Amino acid sequence: MHVSIFRPRLVLLLALCISVMMWFPSAYGDSGQWVKYSGNPVLTPTSNAWDSVFVTSPRVIFDGTSYRMWYVGGHAGATDIGYANSTDGVTWHKYSTFVLSPGPNGTWDSARVWLGSVIWNGSLFFMWYQGSSPVAYPNGAIGLATSVDGVSWVKYAGNPVLTPSSVDQKYIATPFVVRLISTYSMWYAARSAFDPNSVIRILYATSADGIRWSKWPSPALSPSLNMSVWDSGAVFSPSVIYDGSNFGMWYSGMNQSLIAQIGYASSPDGATWTKSADNPILSPGPPGTWDSAGVQQAATTVGNGLMLYYDGFTNTTTGAIGLARSPPGFTIAEFPSPLISLFLVLITCAAICSTLYKRERMRK
Predict the structure, then answer these.
(1) C-alpha 306: how far from chain center
(2) What value, to the nearest 5°, has the Cα angle with vertex 216 and ends 212 and 220?
(3) How far is residue 282's CA from residue 35's CA, in Å, rounded to a whole number?
(4) 63 phi and psi angles, rounded to 5 deg
(5) For residue 8, is it within any domain?
(6) What pLDDT does residue 22 have?
(7) Running DSSP on this structure, what letter comes out for residue 282?
(8) H or E segment to which residue 339 belongs
(9) Domain containing 74 — which CATH number?
(10) For residues 113 and 108, what is the distance between their CA atoms, to the nearest angstrom?
(11) Which of 19, 60, 152, 216 could be bridged to 204 by S-S, CB 3.0 to 4.6 A?
(12) In the chain, what are the helix, strand and coil shares in percent, each to the nearest 5?
């Protein structure tokens, strides 16, 4: 008696397709549909600790089961980089002490260290961070550190990997790196002495190895020329994702009154960006709330939906970290609709089913 093995294969394939559909990211978002977590802030300073004054600049990775956050903490005029983990992206457990600190006197990063971005390449964590020193790099440079566990870091011996030039000699900070198939892309905040307006812009650089960088001659993103617009004073602290064909950037902006808010821009190539018409996508809270004076330095990750971590502060507090979520199912106009991608997944599954069916008929 012939027993068909096609049906079990089909069942397994359908189960796979359903799993893909359930896990398929359906939440890119730029508009004002972001919802702040009601329990904010999710990370605050710890009394009598190395981060007792402020916590800021979150960078978050979700590995499928847990969340990892690196952040900047401050106390007594010093800054270090810390680490925390979480199972839900809301309740965080700090590591006992900082994981990256300024170098000794005479080194390029002896004055301070500041994030930065962190990526996982399959075997190592890579962290790009801003460092400064009183003499060699008073306005900042960018260094690299690596780690096998995200806690114990080794600074690259050839640091810094990106140093000031004519386009950014007055200020370099907040590098954010995305690894593509064979290259790395970096966006960072900078200011040039030759800029007649002396404003902070977002610049762009590329690299084949994450160490040797080539800067683009023109800014990737600049403040709005209209002085009444929310980001006319400065743009800084980019956070970028790449969906395989388009780039999305969440960035911080300040108006002429130095009120910080968060905006969004999109790009087909990483170099030329279009700001969203719905900007700003995240604004300060009402008076009396923990983020009433400003929100900035966004970091996005795809975990339980698209999750945006950011700094918030009041006129009397120096900084804590909050979370905003995008409602399930909405998209941004600049990115392909998840429905299109889902349709392509279904077509692929149907084609595989057809092939299996034809092969089974031929065996008969």
Answers:
(1) 12
(2) 125
(3) 9
(4) -100, 10
(5) no
(6) 39
(7) B
(8) helix 338-363
(9) 2.115.10.20
(10) 10
(11) 216
(12) 10, 40, 50
